[in-house]
Amino acid sequence: MNTLKKITKNQLFIPLAALLILAMFNLIMDPGFFKITLGQNNMGNYVLSGYLITILDSGSELAILAIGMTLVTAASGGQDISVGAVIAIGGSAMLRVLCGNDPKPAQLHAPIIVAFLVSCIVCMLFGAFNGTLVAYFKIQPMVATLIMYTAGRSIAAWINNNTLPVISPTASPSFAYFGGFIPGIPIPTPVFIAIICMIIIALVLKFTNLGLYTQSVGINESSSKLNGLNPQAIKLLSFVILGLCVAVAALIKVSRIQTINYSVIAKDIEMDAILAVALGGNALSGGKFNMPASIIGAYVIQFLTTTLYKFKVQSDALPAYKAVVVILLVVLSAPVVREYLSGLKKKIKAGGKEVA
Amino acid sequence: MKKRVLATLLSAVMLVSLAACGSNGGSNDTGSAGGSTGGSTSGSTTTTTTTTTDSGSSSGALIKVGIINNDPNESGYRTANDADLKAMFTEANGYEASFAYSLKNDEQITAAQKFIQDGVDYLLLSAADTAGWDSVLKDAQDAGISVILFDRTIDADESLYEASIVSDMAKEGETAVNWLAGQGLSEYNVIHIQGVMGSAAQQGRTGALDDKVKAEASWNLVTQQTAEWNAEKAQQIVQSVIDSGESFNVIYAENDDMAKGAVAALDSAGISHGVGKDVIVMGFDCNKWALEELLNKNWNYDGQCNPFQASYIDEIIKTLESGGTISQKTIIMDEKGFDAATITQADVDQYGI
Amino acid sequence: MKEKSVLEMRGIQKSFPGVRALQGVDFTLCEGEIHALMGENGAGKSTLIKVLTGVYTKDEGQIFLKGKDEVNIHSPQDAQRLGISTVYQEITLCPNLSVAENMYIGRTEGALQNWKKMNADADKILQSLDIPAKASQQLASCSIAVQQMVAIARAVDMECKVLILDEPTSSLDDNEVAKLFKLMRDLKAKGVGIIFVTHFLDQVYEVCDKITVLRDGKLVGEYEIADLPRVKLVSKMLGKEMDDLSDIKSEAKAYEEKDASEYVFEAKNLQSNAGIKPFDFYIKKGEVNGFTGLLGSGRSECVRAIFGADTVIGGEVKVDGKSVKITKPIQAMKNGIAYLPEDRKLDGIVGDLSVRENIILALQVLKGFFKPFTKAEANKFAEEYIKLLGIKTASADTPIKSLSGGNQQKCILARWLLTKPEYLILDEPTRGIDVGTKVDIQKLVLKLASEGMSITFISSETDEMLRTCSRLIVMRDRKVVGELKGDELTQSMIMSTIAGGESEK
User: Is the CB of A43 less than 8 angstroms away from the CB of B244?
Assistant: First the structure.
């Protein structure tokens, strides 16, 4: 009984349980859901395919964003709703560096790594902009990031003079690797990129005080200040880290289709990232967080999306299903419901005893 | 407590006056902003003027046009459309043009009211939504302003506008479906990727295919999903069909971006596509890069959605200015469908956007 | 039910995960009685109050009210409807609403509200209670003490039969306390039963009729005030006979003149943006001194300026004779200064973090961002100080917010002791905590001083300061007005210095 209680109280319980329910549902409806096959793609490479691979592949960007969003949520007690727009900016900046002024370059104008680093710097600057508004001007995070949410995609379009650059395979065969496959490796590259990001954040959390500081600032800013922390700097830092995550996600997104559409790229992804944080059982009002739970939350969302695609649910109805999940989560985590449930459990236990 | 009530009252008053500003006080914005790169993706209307009004005799001869369009970043189509309009309505061609962009109907209506206040000669309109335009167009008529609709129609009395230059989306769909039927496959298993539901382009292009599937026993829809013009979503939709193991031989994507996303999914699954291959790929809008895919025989078909309405509009204005009349209210533009088997480099250069 | 009782609680049980907060507690309150509820922190006073007011649901037991027999109280609204009103230690009003709105919030029938009448009524009550606030004033613009009184006014106006005052006096000065007592006596005369929870023994003996003592979640007993002298009360609360209070006095060291070379910390014309006049200050090695003065005289602001907690706008600071710049807490910490803030909840604890994380926080910040302690190291520190200070907690992993006030305070103290400071500032370390812990802290202060630590000690209880400090800096109206040492350290001397005239050095 005690171990059961321990398990249900663990923060990983909700996202893992959600994952399990989705998996069970698919197993019952169609065991073929879990089939993974090895086939050849059009470049002649052997690659793995199957729903599970698709989930891991497509969920990568979201998992990466969930890392940054978790830190921002913890430190600032609010969320950044501009990540989708900043992905457009980062992707646009990257393509601008790669293509120069020519929307269809015959060859790249700069190495991909340079373009990626430029994109990182750009995204971190926009993160710093949001962070400054939140930390130093004390604007509510959602309101502060509303600015970039509104203006970001226009800025992205402006970076490339309203043109839509396309990188053809002849210009650079390797550009598609980041969102597709590297020849000879049968697993999609975004999966590796996501794993690298997770390892990095795990190391950062282990070998620095990022976790303690962000949580401390998120829980009690005034007390943190009196303990020698600089709450503003820490909030700013969390937004800059999110900016870096955004740049990585932008690389994958742009590489997937080797072009960009400013108004639809990564549309509404901020809502999914926030939902991932919430699904992980983290308080959206900030404070304590559990990073693995957020990341699992991201994959739960992708699992749900893929499941709905599989059952041919109209994809414009997806937000409605996500809304149901959010409502369930919020209701289940409400103190009133928790108290009622624990009371119910006691009653059942008492009843069981009487019978015995 | 009094303070509180007063504050509420005050804010109410401010709201009302703000609304009033929106409807008639905006004249000082227009004309002051320079440059032409603006435009917002979501939300606010932006108004820019391409021609700086010279304090000279020339300004008297210019025809003032107010152009209300959708956001140029919406798609390659819109970008080309906007660029076409900007190239046509210049001072050199005898126009003084002001532009307003929004994807929201109410913001567009506000912009229209502003243009009416400014006393433009012509109001060119590509409406975000079909409804709600009656009263503002009536105002324009009362002010002696001629209204010309382009790209999109509205639900208003025909007498309220001079002409409407539109693409016939249903015809685009029919052209494409007829072409597909002409391929003579024994069975058509179609993955149908739709645009944003309810948009004119989606309705027109979906309608033709739906009718055909209903009529012919050998035509099946493997899946019919909206990817909302988004390439990644299209990729996921096609990926999902591939993962399920269902067989298909046609991808009917309602724009080029989504066709590209679909092809990305095919490529990673090792499914061949293009002329003489396993899967027929169809797109719309004729982006230059898409036509190049046709030229390389990777795709099979691309339907044109003609964004170049400026010359039509120019012609109408010239006719009206010279005292002529327009014989036909609705003008449907010529639109082609390109087949990978017959497309030439010249087509790509001429029709690619 | 007894003839005159308005409230009876029988066999109340309440458990939290890992803790049995109340075990079979009985409590009886009679009409027109002021009844003190006493016990150390964690003895179960607050839990009992919260059960009575419906904040917690009791696990077992019965509650009887006069004329109603057994009642079930599920929510604060239930309690209010039954005529049980509460004023909590922490102000639970809405600072951004007006005074009148705060007094009437949640009490109106229906959706309509006659604002004019509400304001007039509120003003009448405020006037009758002599509370210096206007009905239309925003609550946040009142001082903490006035806010507290508004909370009482709200409770009083609710026609209550049972009024619970949970530490209402901890942020009031003597004048305000006297007003409150007058008010309590008035209410008593009207037949209201009042439950009074406080740590101030003087106040208990001044105003109460009966005392109920709790210890470790159990009832110790109910006593008539006349039958229970102070020493006995303290020993009942602590569960042992003790003379510690008198012991301490003899331990206070006499102030010895030393020359400036021994100054651990020295400030000249120090000034912050918190509205205090520039002041000079110094402290020597092993010295315990203190700031005294009325509530709001600038005591806390002075030490906050020393620590860099407020924005420092002028003055020179020397540590160990060397000029340093202290404008941020981290700079003070690096110079060996530690500061236990006045408001434990707002400035001290990091509620959701564990006891361990709270204890290591300051040292960890000093150590640096890239050098986190391993879990083993952190545990070692935490365990060491939990043992050293006798912190009562289920484990080092328990969130600090679930500890009682006194134990939270000990954690914060542990946090700063862990940094091994040369100079420790304690601002109201004994506020709102039980007698036992108070004595512990005072003893600790003297022990640390004897080991060479310099300590500034601030308390609103002058006898605590007299017991521990060898030098007192007296403040009035945000200005240092005097300094007392040696023979001058008497209650009456402090009073007269605070009260008026420039002090004679």
Answer: no
The pLDDT tens digits of the residues spanning C219-277 come to 999 999 888 887 778 778 766 554 444 444 444 555 565 566 678 999 999 999 888 88
∠ Cα A147 A151 A157 (to 5°): 160
Q: Is A140 on the interface with B (CB under 8 A)?
A: no
Q: Does residue B136 sit in the same domain as residue B233?
A: no
* Pick from A151, A162, A316: CB nearest B37: A162
pLDDT tens string B88-147: 999 999 999 999 988 888 889 999 999 999 999 999 999 888 888 999 999 999 999 999
- d(C-alpha B173, C-alpha B202), whole Å: 9
Give chain C positions within 8 Å (CB) of B1: 98, 100-101, 115-116, 118-119, 136
Task: Looking at the structure, tell me whether residues B253 and B137 fall in a common domain.
Answer: no
What's CA C128's distance to the chain center, in Å?
Answer: 28
Q: B3 at the C interface (CB within 8 A)?
A: yes
Same domain, B99 and B225: no
Chain A segment 31-60 residues within 8 A of B by beta carbon are: 32, 39-43, 47, 49-51, 54, 58
In whole angstroms, what is the distance from residue C330 CA to residue C341 CA? 15
Domain count, chain A: 2
B73 closest CB neighbour out of A154, A306, A316: A154
pTM, two decimals, is 0.77
Contacts of A149 in chain B (CB under 8 A): 42
CB of C382 within 8 Å of a chain A CB? The answer is no
Provide the CATH number for the domain around residue B298: 3.40.50.2300
- The residue among C136, C137, C138, C141 with the most chain B CBs within 10 A of its CB, best to mutate, is C136
Q: How many residues does chain B have?
A: 353
> Which domain, by its residues, includes B136?
26-161
Q: Which CATH number goes with the domain that contains A109?
A: 1.10.3470
Per-residue tens of pLDDT for chain B, all 353 residues: 444 554 454 444 444 444 444 333 333 333 333 333 333 333 444 455 444 444 433 445 789 999 999 888 777 788 888 889 999 999 999 999 999 988 888 889 999 999 999 999 999 999 888 888 999 999 999 999 999 999 888 888 888 898 999 888 889 999 999 999 999 999 999 999 999 888 888 988 999 999 999 999 999 999 999 998 899 999 999 999 999 989 999 999 999 999 999 999 999 889 999 999 999 999 998 988 899 999 999 999 999 988 888 989 999 999 998 888 888 888 888 888 999 999 999 999 888 88
Mutant choice from A51, A52, A257, A303 vs B, greatest count of B C-beta within 10 A: A257
* Mean pLDDT computed over A25-54: 89
Is the same domain home to A109 and A22? Answer: yes
DSSP letters, A190-231, are: HHHHHHHHHHHHHHHHHHSSHHHHHHHHHH-HHHHHHTT--H
Chain A residues touching residue C328 (CB < 8 angstroms): 228, 230
CB pairs under 8 A between A and B: 140
Enclosing H/E stretch for A103: none
> Within this chain, do residues B114 and B257 fall inside the same structural domain, yes or no?
no
Q: Do A49 and B244 touch (CB under 8 A)?
A: no
Cβ within 8 Å of residue B207, ≥6 positions away: B170, B173
DSSP structural state of residue C346: I
Output the average pLDDT for chain C. 83
Interchain contact, B76 vs A43, CB within 8 Å: no
For chain B, what is the total number of helices (H) and then of strands (E)?
12, 13
Domains of chain B: total: 2
CA distance linking residue C384 with residue C389, whole number of Å: 9
Alpha-carbon span A127 to A148, nearest angstrom: 10
Pairing between strand C193-197 and C34-38? parallel
Which domain does A67 fall in, by range? 2-310
Sort out which chain B residues have CB atoms less than 8 A from A312's CB and list them.
Answer: 223, 225
